[in-house]
Amino acid sequence: MVSMGNQQQCRIITATAALFLAVGGILLLVVPTEDVKEPPEFMYGIVLDAGSSHTAMFIYKWPADKQNGTGIVSQHRECHAKGGGISSYAGNKGGAASSLEECMEQAMQEIPKSRHKLTPVYLGATAGMRLLNISKPKESDEVLKEVADKLKTYPFSFKGANILSGQEEGAYGWVTVNYLLENYIKYGFVGQWLSPGRDTVGALDFGGASTQITFETKQIVENKDNLMKLRLYGRDYRIYTQSFLCYGRDQVLLRLLAHLITTQGSDRSIVHPCYPAGYSDSIKLSSVFDTPCNKRPTLYKPDDDLQIKGTGNYDQCLGNVSRLFSFNNCSYSRCSFDGVFQPNITGNFMAFSAFFYTHSFLQEVTGISITSPEHLEDATHVVCNMSFQEITNKVQGQESRLKDYCAVSAFVQVLLVHRYGFDFLSFPHISFQKKAGDTSVGWSLGYMLSLSNLLPAEDVLLRKSLRSSAWSALVVLFCFLLIVALYFLLQAICILLLVINTEDIKEPAQLMYGIVMDAGSSHTSVFIYKWPADKQNGTGIVSQHSECHVKGGGISSYAGNRGGAAHGLEECMEKAMQEIPKSRHKLTPVYLGATAGMRLLNISKPKESDEVLKEVADKLKTYPFSFKGANILSGQEEGAYGWVTVNYLLEKFITYGFVGQWLSPGKDTVGALDLGGASTQITFETKQIVENKDNLMKLRLYGRDYQIYTQSFLCYGRDQVLLRLLALLMKTQGSDRSIVHPCYPAGYSDSIKLSSVFDTPCNKRPTLYKPDDDLQIKGTGNYDQCLGNVSRLFSFNNCSYSRCPFDGVFQPNITGNFMAFSAFFYTHSFLQKAAGITVTSPADLEDAIRVVCNMSFQEMQNKFPDEGNHLRDYCADSILLQVLLINGYGFSDLSFPHISFREKAEDTSVGWSLGYMLSLSNLLPAENVLVKKTLRPDAWRAAVFLFSVLLIASIFFLLRTYQKNATKLCC
């Protein structure tokens, strides 16, 4: 009896233990869990670019889940096939196929075996095969069939070997350019792929046999053959594209020779106005006419020699090159040439391949910065007038090409200016580049982007995930149950199912926030920034969350008005309370930085300055944020943090790679030129010795160190210069009652109080100063006199360093590119609009200023009725820009074109506040990344099934035991 009772107890204990095990396991597996995406596998694609001179193989890859229907494609590997292009193997059976073997074997090794069958292979032949197809179509078909049969022998998904049309080549080149410039999609600073909504960039390609123009347009495309519609990253694009066969560099040179033979009536000897004087050569006629682009003469002897003598005559060369184009027979509303429709060009363009090399050669040889049609003509003139000996002495390593640069330059001039229609306004929007985003451009990447749009995405692999706390509880419980029911083998299996196939997965990092208050001279702005709490190489990936402009003037305007400055901040700070999650309030730093307005107040009324700062500091301490200080920002800090902002928004410090990594692009940084109301700043990275250590700042951002020169000039801001100019004119003209103002336009007159001139520490008050006296001002509009007076505001003497711009301040030589913003941008923009001159050089700047300064006030009002009181100041503003940039900072004919005058960087207004938050985030501790334990779906399903079976079996076992006990008790 005792034995039987013990046996029953054992059964109950066993069943109970199994029951607890099953219930506990199921509960912990379903509470709390969520689906977590596994990083997707990669898909691959192979594109063979069969050009006229050689074949290149590109292997691309992209995440298998794709983004808005298109793969985030990056180049995985590149291989150049030995030998010539496949068109060169016409008549050489097996040669074209054999040339591809080495690269295809490399592809077999590079692409994972599991992906071979899913990897598309496409061979596209371009202009070389297009010409072969015209002259020898049968041989063209044989070559294509041969390479297609070869590619089918590999375990990839062969998609075809075809001759790419000119329109396709142009369109896919356009896709490549805009993809690499991140105009379709970019990775946002808080972990999302975004469509930036930028305008696309047109593509100008100049190859050996053809040239292409492609750009997005909203105009009606009258010839539908020129219209292509593409869908990329969830957006539709409508582009115009046209390819001109026989208008490539090599074919143009051959056509020019044939044209000269025809016009000079000789196939024995010709004089060549595009070849440099002193150059002569002898070639076979077959080298001129063995192309379908040239019509062979009636009596054609391919082995005859043709003697060529260069004369180097620009005008004659230009005339002959122009005759290669047909400007007649247009059946559309507008044609570029050869009767081909083209809508008006709009927006920015990138010109690459032979466009880049020609443009680069012209600038290098002539020293002319080519940013307008006039500059292009001037540079071409210089090159065409150089003798062959001069060119050879000046340029090393390009002997075989030197004879052709005059002809090619003249062709580029005719094509871009006279045919495509780039004028003095649109030409500066052409960027001549060898690469886009550090990658050589071409049609192959663009094609793979389009092809990836057609390939099905794979389902995202999901895992069930547990938070760390739930996982720990699960482990403790199962250890306990293991001790209670040692003999139960299923317990071990359950635990094994929970620990195998697991890995740590990072949860998306929470966001940290920061508040920066930019207390300027005219108003205060409150910026809320955010960045992932785990940071990147020590610095937050910061983006602007929201912005609020405080009503009223800047805090300096409340000097003597107790409580006014603090009260003005309340509305924006209450908004910040709502915008930032409550759980983040205590962790959110708040910083108020006052700039030039408070710097001036601190000079003239230091006690009132301190009182204003204390008042706003006390106010900000009442909010539940982490108050970091309310200070007057030094001029150097303002300049340095403005530089940080510019380069951050231009992605010079860090960029998101196309395969999911933040990368340091290693790009050269851009200098910053800021012209405010009270001060002006210049800041740029330099490797030179900075002789005055006050001008040196060292910053660490995104794992890299930067050494920058920065200088702020107080009282050289736009508003203060205008006041200083008035004070100077009063002094030089010896009157405090009336003055003539050479910088104000003729016909303008005004009366102002003397207090408005001298109520600033930038001007020294006269001995007998009566602030309420009136000053009569009459404008005369004289450029030379205005320039002279503005120049006298600068001190160009007394330099104790090796080099000074002005006022005895050290500055190293300027290098690299610069962005000029704030009043620099507005003044430059007005000059171009008013004068109708594209200002890209010091000479252009002077010409434009002369036009503005010579305009009467009535003319200006008629032409620009919306400018109001700003009109009277534009002459002085412009001359300040001229003196400051040219005479002060030292921008020359070579360096001035490297200044980009812009209102915004990447659609964001620039200033010191974002740069400061980037630097501040470098000091804030990063949070530990939250980690989850994860199970693969197969392990999850097995665990749930096992626990469910165990639960049912346990309940059944308990019921059966209970029934047996009940039967025995009743019997």
TrEMBL record:
GO molecular function: ATP binding; GDP phosphatase activity; ribonucleoside triphosphate phosphatase activity; UDP phosphatase activity
Keyword GTP-binding: no
Keyword Hydrolase on entry: yes
Binding site for ATP: 677-681
Subcellular locations according to the entry: Membrane
Topological relation to the membrane, as annotated: Multi-pass membrane protein
InterPro entries (UniProt xref): GDA1_CD39_NTPase
Keywords: ATP-binding, Calcium, Disulfide bond, Glycoprotein, Hydrolase, Magnesium, Membrane, Nucleotide-binding, Transmembrane, Transmembrane helix
Cofactor field: Mg(2+); Ca(2+)
GO CC term, one of those recorded: plasma membrane
Pfam families registered for this protein in UniProt: GDA1_CD39
GO BP: nucleoside diphosphate catabolic process
Active site: 638 (proton acceptor)
Transmembrane portions of the chain: 12-30, 42-60, 473-500, 939-959
Record family assignment: Belongs to the GDA1/CD39 NTPase family.
PANTHER family recorded: ADENOSINE/GUANOSINE DIPHOSPHATASE (PTHR11782), ECTONUCLEOSIDE TRIPHOSPHATE DIPHOSPHOHYDROLASE 2 (PTHR11782:SF33)
Record-given protein name: Ectonucleoside triphosphate diphosphohydrolase 2
